[in-house]
# Entry
Amino acid sequence: MSAQILDGKKTSAEVKEELKPRIAYLTEQGCQPGVAVVLVGDDPASQIYVRNKERTCEKLGIYSVQHRLPATTPQEELIELVNNLNQDERIHGILVQLPLPPHIQEREVLYHISPEKDVDGFHPYNLGRLMIGDPVFLPCTPWGVQELLLRYNLSPEGKNVVIVGRSNIVGKPLAMMLVQKGRGANATVSMCHTGTRNLSTYTRMADILIAACGSPRLITPDMVKEGAVVVDVGINKVGDKTVGDVDFEGVKEVASYISPVPGGVGPMTIAMLMANTVKAAERALQRKNA
# Structure
């Protein structure tokens, strides 16, 4: 019997629908949520992602502005743009699309984003608050994974969760989120990576297996425990196909639930970005009225 699909499109639509009354209220108060997306260069995947964000903002009534810069843009110029956006009262969220061209230090740029406008949740201030269990903005993809599980009544509490991948964007923050005390967490988390020996020894122990390593179809059926929940965060191009880090066709015959690629975590990431932008606008309105 095949696994049940964790439908990110359907679930993200539910999240966005719930945001609409909050956006309407903020707009009535003269504080329409606003997000600025900065794209440097012409990475095809980034361009698609940015277009999807633009469409979502338009449908929800979120003010959106795009800054598309050539790949040769100097780092100083990019940081100057970020500083200007920090001062722009119409903008509540700033998103610098990664990856950046090799001559630009991502960390330097991200550190210049105001923590109050860091809707990606990558600033050290926000990551620090996440670690101590008092988050403001959660990183969008990890939050999307957590929310997807919760809306299918698949709480990680008390479960063995194995994350394959240790990036600052997904693996590390997701591990921090899932070990916290509280809703959607309280799990026992193992993090695996390229230095892990005998990877399948760990993956076969997982009640919830999350693949986020950027390796096409790395997770095969023999690496998955019967009845496990499998969440595939990977997006890889293989020829003209987009595939995940999981061998979907094989693993769906072993798992109880599985997220597809595309249509799983990707839509959730955009939905959680919208949620962070709305939260940032609400916080700005509170400061204004204080």
Observations:
- The radius of gyration is 19 Å.
- The chain has a mean pLDDT of 95.
- The domain at 140-266 is CATH 3.40.50.720 (Rossmann fold).
